[in-house]
């Protein structure tokens, strides 16, 4: 087969004015414009690799600058030279002396690394003629393991343990694929519960969500205590006692306040409390978890890298592991995190509030189900119903479940007309 050579990297600053309607708002991010540093790997073939990292408006330009910098490590490479030794390639991105001083493996540079690595996987899956989830589902265990960097995590998950998990998952895999294709992967909606929505809107959206088959609803909290409780009661009364509420404070509180505020919400019977405090406070999460039990603690969307996930798991700080498809270094690092979560028996429920994250994470959850956990118990993928129209292969959601794509790639390619219209600041959407 002809080698595919990467000839150029094109980067776009893409922003959608979602803050105008309070879409995506929470107690901390009160006016988010869902945005992306978006990249296209051009090649000497007809194929392109697309990837993005999710951001929130101002600051996207920093990720764009970092992506342009990282371009020097990929332009001129063949696809197979990367995928034959993924760990070495990833280390060229994360270990560049001087640039790595900005991290390492966190913040702007890691977000941008995620976009680039995801673009490689998009190209890889397209070159194999498969959607990413099918590529991962069929990949030999040894090949998958060669894509994972065990440095910094082999004290909790050895390569042999990972191999044992992947090997065991072969049993029943074909049936699980059939079941996913027939029944989809369970999901929850955040679309009814944004922070800036009025009581009336929350109630109406919950009613509409119920009619559409949703059973799990997430509500943003972290405002005035009485407001949180009132809004929570609206959700609970509307969806009834048997459906599930999750609450998300988006890091609003210190540890002690988080314990108080979570306990004040117990009458809602929340299925989980998400990001109650600083995402970096691993022991703080562990204490909160102990002192609000049986309310479960979820976090991960702001977790910088696999080392922090390792420690959250080691410290028994979380009940739900919320991987993020592009905050860490793309597919490879998420494979490692999913395997670690399995080792600790913690369910993975990916974060997907943002643009493109639903499109991405469906592939990762399918991998988790098919190759790692082999279970759907207590597992749901987040869904938000915004901006999907900009994707060439938007997610297929029916009755609160994701139905997986068959189009080759990582489902992240944005329509050319949307790339043009929402490019910042020159796109038509930003002219007025
Ligand atoms: C700013 C984002 O919309 C954030 O609120 C998303 C989030 O926390 C979630 O989806 O969970
Ligand atoms: Mg959240």
Automatic annotation (TrEMBL):
A GO molecular-function descriptor: L-fuconate dehydratase activity
Pfam families (alphabetical): MR_MLE_C, MR_MLE_N
Cofactor: Mg(2+)
Keyword Acetylation applies: no
Catalytic activities: L-fuconate = 2-dehydro-3-deoxy-L-fuconate + H2O
Keywords: Lyase, Magnesium, Metal-binding
InterPro entries: Enolase-like_C_sf, Enolase-like_N, Enolase_C-like, L-fuconate_dehydratase, Mandel_Rmase/mucon_lact_enz_CS, Mandelate_racemase_C, Mandelate_racemase_N_dom, RHMD-like
Classification via SMART domains: MR_MLE (SM00922)
GO biological process, one term: carbohydrate catabolic process
Catalytic activity, EC: 4.2.1.68
Domain Mandelate racemase/muconate lactonizing enzyme C-terminal positions: 199-295
Name of the protein: L-fuconate dehydratase
Species the sequence originates in: Granulicella aggregans
